[in-house]
Amino acid sequence: TANQIEYDRGRDIVTATGNVDAIDHAESTRVRAGKVRYDRRLDYAWATDNPVLTLDEAGGKSTKVLGSTLEFDNAKRRVFALGKVRIERERLHAEGDRAEFYQSEQRALLLGEPRAWDDEGAVRGDTLEIRFAQHRVKSMQVRPNAVVDFQAKSEVGRGERNHAVGDTVTL
Fold it and tell me: Pick from 2, 44, 65, 135: CA 20 to 30 A from residue 20's CA?
């Protein structure tokens, strides 16, 4: 849905503006934005004006991806988030200048001074790569210039504290 939808038949482009809310039930995704432009010939879309991609998972959990622009290469099952990218999933947060999601390979890259954190620690480096299995994080690799700070929250006694620096760190 949107406040206005225009179709350019000659170029085969659909442009939706104003409170755009697009749902893909097959992929369990939802895009909200001020504007979405979809090139039907290329099977490629651009979402701008405060776009938010929500990926719903079993059990009611969801991941939100925010950026200045979201691009969807549907033919190759890739999504790109550009400009002040933020990713939020429960207590896990990440940010960087660019995020690339490769659905067929079940992996994502966060680039441009990426960092991720939760209430127990943080990681940062030049590239943050996340691998998935069944919509769950399987592993995270930070490379190069990797820095990991971790402090386990302990209900009793002293909590564990770690600081690691290296070329590559895999979690």
Answer: 135
Instruction: Quickly count: other Cβ atoms within 10 Å of residue 142's Cβ.
Output: 26
d(CA 61, CA 67) in angstroms, rounded, equals 20
Q: Is the pLDDT of residue 9 over 90?
A: yes
- Cα separations (Å) of 10 from 6, 17, 33, 36, 43? 12, 19, 25, 18, 16
Report the C-alpha gap between 97 and 95 in whole angstroms.
7
Compute CA 10 distance to the chain's CA centroid, rounded to the nearest angstrom.
33
Cα dihedral 46, 17, 42, 75 sign: positive
Cα angle 110, 111, 114; round to 5? 75
